[in-house]
């Protein structure tokens, strides 16, 4: 399973991005979409689209967090990372900082952030990520710089 993970589009994204995500089995957006119309081209790809609410949304169309299970792994999708991973979560995916992240904490929970599509932070280039999941294997996380 190949999941495209994006965050912090803030109403904008490179015009080539939807086509680059065409090969995804799913698309996960980790908040700060802002205008829901920003997602139209991604929805038109016909892939399942999971979206969480960011701190810059002026509506409540999406949940603050999503808990998903794929290939036996339990994922928490949220915009602002919690201080600690909640019980029963293997991987926390978040946005908000505009900085890519791939860390594993002392409990073995993996923390992932794809960075920001439009306004990266602290010199990081714009980016998104591919999350590849196969049963019985650790998740593969590949950052794609734009």
What does this structure look like?
The protein is globular, with a radius of gyration of 14 Å. The two termini are 22 Å apart. Helices cover 5% and strands 34% of the residues. The chain has 146 residues and is mostly beta strands.
Write the layout of secondary structure elements.
Layout: E1 2-6, H1 17-20, E2 26-29, H2 40-43, E3 49-51, E4 65-70, E5 73-78, E6 91-93, E7 100-104, E8 110-114, E9 127-132, E10 140-145
Parallel strand pairs: 1-2, 2-3, 5-6, 6-8
Antiparallel strand pairs: 1-9, 4-5, 7-8, 9-10
What strand order characterises the main sheet?
Answer: 3-2-1-9-10
List SSEs in N-to-C order.
EHEHEEEEEEEE
| Share of β-strand residues | 25-35%
- What is the residue-averaged pLDDT? 96
Helix content: under 10%
Q: Which segments are poorly predicted (pLDDT under 50) over 5 or more consecutive residues?
A: none
Number of helices: 2
| Radius of gyration over C-alpha positions, nearest whole angstrom | 14 Å
Largest sheet: 5 strands, mixed
Q: Globular, elongated, flat, extended or rod-shaped: what is the shape?
A: globular
Distance between the termini: 22 Å
Secondary-structure-based class equals mainly beta
Q: Could you tell me the number of beta strands?
A: 10
Keywords:
single chain, 146 residues, mainly beta, 5-stranded mixed beta sheet
């Amino acid at each position: 399973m190949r999941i495209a993970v994006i965050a912090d589009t803030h109403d904008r994204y490179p015009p080539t991005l939807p086509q680059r995500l065409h090969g995804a089995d799913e698309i996960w957006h980790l908040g700060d979409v802002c205008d829901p119309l920003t997602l139209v081209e991604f929805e038109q790809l016909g892939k399942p689209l999971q979206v969480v609410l960011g701190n810059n949304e002026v509506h409540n169309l999406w949940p603050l967090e999503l808990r998903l299970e794929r290939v036996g792994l339990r994922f928490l999708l949220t915009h602002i990372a919690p201080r600690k991973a909640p019980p029963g979560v293997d991987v926390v995916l978040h946005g908000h900082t505009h900085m890519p992240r791939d860390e594993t904490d002392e409990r073995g929970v993996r923390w992932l952030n794809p960075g920001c599509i439009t306004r990266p932070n602290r010199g990081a280039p714009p980016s998104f990520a591919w999350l590849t999941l196969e049963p019985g294997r650790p998740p593969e996380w590949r950052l794609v710089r734009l």
